[in-house]
């Protein structure tokens, strides 16, 4: 339909040779599923395209309106192998719907034509063929979804799930984004009430959702400056965060000292108050984001109605992940709670976010910030040091950015600081994770000024992700 390449045409001819198809009764040979399958959507017709040829994604966008490019959806096999089945690509000339099926004759009887660009996948869930690909239908059109976020978005738009159609391998490469202290972006500094930087950053993440294969967004605290005393600051932050919710991107926001009633107008600690008590008071933070964290799918929290200590789970890169957000300078029982949650999920790779952990020089802070209960060093000793599945720790609070490798139960965990407190731009840290190569690559750029900080680029190897 798209004037496919010779490679795709050759592939279609191979698919047509039924004699080369391996018997389905054999155990699936998932090791052969190394070919990226790209996904794109036509926003007007809602047609869905899956193709192993990246050049077809580009031609479909330029000539046929498939402008919503969603990157690599999964990995499949380019040729027959034990236990794999052929996914024929079919096209309906009237509805312009694409359809992938193991039974081309039934599709032809329904008015579809055989089209190039198929692939081989598993009919069953096997050890390494563990990514279910769901098919949805609405008004005679079909869509395919892998991630829970994509599935939820289709269901919310009225698409009906037809269940799992086949099993593939996960794209091992994905990213998470970490927003630093945004306290200067919510109407009190920089651009004032017309400041666009916070919303510009979240829109950048939305726009790059699929090209980055962005699976989770974190905020390391100080979402506002003194929003517990000036609620319009939370209005601005809330509107910026809604952009993530519109595309079902899961996220967590940590509580910083400026997000609590310990900070008064002007951004300083309130004089004459018991700040060790008021630092635990953040009714606006809880009120504005109740039921919204991780797009309403939090797995649990330390105290009912309190968003300072929460956890969420997700799957990406073919592995399982646990995100734990800890309160600032935590109480001992909150640390015990976090330790128990992590120990109860030993097969998940753990990401911890808390407002204060590294200092501006990259060392673990040893004090309580003047009005906390414990110190970041106690976070390390209680929650990180003896848990071998902890992989990342994110914090803000001071300085610009830093990085430190720490020991977690004998394995390496990487701690990142990002704060900046910029009045002119809007940095965001991107961490690209490759579970097949066991690497983590991080960089910091600002979409508002198209600026990057090369000195903060890093790559960590031998991450030993939990499998």
TrEMBL record:
Record's protein name: Uncharacterized protein
Pfam families (alphabetical): DUF5648, Metallophos
Domain DUF5648: 36-168
InterPro entries, alphabetized: Calcineurin-like_PHP, DUF5648, Metallo-depent_PP-like, STPP_CPPED1
Domain of life: Bacteria
Gene3D superfamilies noted in UniProt: 3.60.21.10
UniProt signal peptide: 1-26
PANTHER family documented for this protein: METALLOPHOSPHOESTERASE, CALCINEURIN SUPERFAMILY, SECRETED PROTEIN
Keyword annotations from UniProtKB, A to Z: Signal
Gene Ontology molecular-function annotations: hydrolase activity
């Amino acid at each position: 339909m798209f004037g496919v390449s010779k490679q795709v045409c050759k592939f279609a001819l191979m698919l047509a040779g039924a004699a080369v198809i391996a018997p389905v009764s054999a155990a699936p040979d998932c090791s052969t599923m190394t070919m990226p399958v790209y996904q794109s959507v036509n926003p007007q017709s809602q047609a869905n395209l899956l193709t192993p040829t990246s050049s077809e994604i580009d031609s479909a966008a330029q000539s046929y309106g498939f402008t919503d490019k969603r990157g690599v959806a999964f990995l499949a096999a380019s040729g027959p192998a034990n236990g794999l089945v052929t996914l024929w690509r079919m096209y309906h000339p009237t509805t312009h719907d694409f359809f992938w099926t193991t039974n081309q004759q039934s599709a032809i009887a329904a008015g579809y034509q055989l089209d190039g660009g198929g692939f081989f996948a598993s009919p069953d869930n096997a050890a390494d063929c563990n990514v279910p690909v769901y098919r949805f239908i609405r008004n005679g059109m079909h869509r395919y979804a892998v991630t829970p976020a994509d599935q939820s978005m289709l269901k919310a738009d009225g698409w009906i799930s037809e269940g799992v159609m086949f099993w593939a391998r996960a794209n091992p490469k994905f990213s998470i984004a970490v927003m630093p202290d945004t306290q200067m972006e919510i109407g009190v500094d920089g651009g004032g009430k017309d400041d666009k930087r916070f919303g510009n950053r979240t829109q950048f993440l939305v726009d790059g959702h699929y090209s980055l294969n962005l699976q989770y967004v974190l905020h390391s605290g100080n979402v506002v400056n003194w929003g517990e005393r000036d609620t319009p600051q939370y209005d601005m932050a809330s509107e910026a965060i809604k952009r993530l919710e519109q595309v079902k991107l899961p996220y967590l926001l940590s509580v910083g000292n400026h997000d609590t009633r310990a900070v008064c107008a002007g951004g300083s600690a309130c004089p004459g108050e018991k700040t060790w008590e008021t630092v635990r008071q953040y009714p606006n933070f809880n009120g504005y984001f109740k039921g919204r964290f991780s797009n309403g799918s939090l797995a649990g929290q330390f105290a009912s109605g309190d968003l300072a200590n929460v956890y969420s789970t997700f799957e990406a890169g073919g592995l399982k992940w646990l995100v734990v957000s800890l309160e600032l300078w935590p109480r001992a029982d909150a640390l015990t709670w976090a330790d128990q949650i992590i120990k109860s999920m030993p097969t998940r790779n753990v990401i911890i976010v808390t407002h204060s952990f590294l200092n501006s020089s990259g060392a673990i802070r040893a004090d309580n910030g003047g009005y906390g209960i414990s110190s970041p060093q106690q976070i390390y000793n209680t929650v990180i040091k003896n848990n071998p599945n902890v992989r990342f720790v994110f914090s803000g609070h001071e300085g610009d950015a830093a990085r430190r490798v720490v020991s977690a139960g004998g394995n390496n965990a990487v701690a990142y600081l990002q704060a900046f407190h910029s009045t002119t731009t809007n940095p965001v840290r991107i961490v690209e994770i490759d579970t097949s190569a066991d690497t983590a690559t991080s960089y910091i750029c600002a979409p508002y000024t198209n600026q990057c900080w090369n000195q903060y680029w890093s790559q960590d190897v031998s991450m030993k992700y939990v499998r």
